[in-house]
Amino acid sequence: MKLSLAVALTFLLAASAWARDPWKDKAYKNWDASDVRKILYDSPWSKRISRTALQAPDAPAEDVSGVDMMGSHSKEAEAGGDTQQLMFVVRWVSSRTLREAWARSLVLQKQISPESMDQHLPPAPAEFLLAVVGPNLSAFEHADEAALRNKSYLSVSKQKISPARVEVARAQDGRISGVVFHFPKTNAAGRPLIAGNEKDVKFIERGAATGFQADFNPRQMVDSQGPDL
């Protein structure tokens, strides 16, 4: 009895570990909706930031992947008078894992066929791309791109990496749907600015009305193919 229980627990723990890290143990073409959602909201490449806002608008309806890689968002609200606890997400969208999640989400949304997934997989960009997305990005409304570029940076091993440029994307109604920060991968000498063995990379944003910090651990940002930034 005890041996059988031990064996059962071993298989249960193995199944739980597999469920936690689909980017390590499942080919991206086999990811289901819950796998994609986990990658977008609860993975080493996605960091959720909570803020309290007054009379915040409701989030639009989401599909299985969270709308899309740039505009995906979610809301965690706790009613307290006219206040709501909002959540937006900082995603390392240049990573292979996020790009694969994007391609897989197109299949799950039935926008493309499974056979054409490789053709829709975004190529690896020449820069590190970090996207801030959420249902209410009004904190960025009055921040111009120059201010965002000058007051935002990556902090790695006591060095600061400034973004080369910042893009502000807007929805059809004019509201900000996302902000993308472009960071160089190498310095002037051509050496990598982030080696991949660092324990902590901090994304500091001070150009918007509400500043924030998101912490990434490159040692955890690893998929089945290796380090993934």
Outline:
This protein has one domain (2-227). It contains six helices and eleven strands. The protein has helices at 2-20, 22-25, 33-41, 96-108, 117-120, 145-150, and strands at 46-54, 83-92, 127-133, 152-156, 159-161, 165-170, 176-184, 201-205, 212-216, 222-223, 226-227.
Topology:
Elements: H1 2-20, H2 22-25, H3 33-41, E1 46-54, E2 83-92, H4 96-108, H5 117-120, E3 127-133, H6 145-150, E4 152-156, E5 159-161, E6 165-170, E7 176-184, E8 201-205, E9 212-216, E10 222-223, E11 226-227
Antiparallel strand pairs: 1-2, 2-3, 3-7, 4-5, 4-8, 6-7, 8-9, 10-11
Characterise the protein shown here.
This protein has 229 residues and is α+β, with helices and mostly antiparallel strands. It has one domain. 24% of the residues lie in helices and 28% in strands. The chain contains six helices and eleven strands. It has a five-stranded antiparallel beta sheet. The protein has a four-stranded antiparallel beta sheet with strand order 5-4-8-9. Helix 3 packs antiparallel against helix 4. It is globular and about 45 Å long. It starts with a helix and ends with a strand. About 19% of the residues have low confidence.
Beta-sheet strand percentage? Answer: 25-35%
The major sheet is characterized as: 5 strands, antiparallel
Helix content: 10-25%
The class by helix and strand makeup works out as alpha+beta
Strand order of the largest sheet: 1-2-3-7-6
Overall shape: globular
Total number of beta strands: 11
Taking Cα atoms only, what radius of gyration do you get, to the nearest Å? 19 Å
Uncertain runs with pLDDT below 50, 5 residues or more?
5-18, 53-81
Terminal CA distance reads 46 Å
Whole-number tally of structural domains: 1
Q: Topology as H/E string?
A: HHHEEHHEHEEEEEEEE
Enumerate how many helices there are, as a single number: 6
Tell me, rounded to a whole number, the average pLDDT.
81
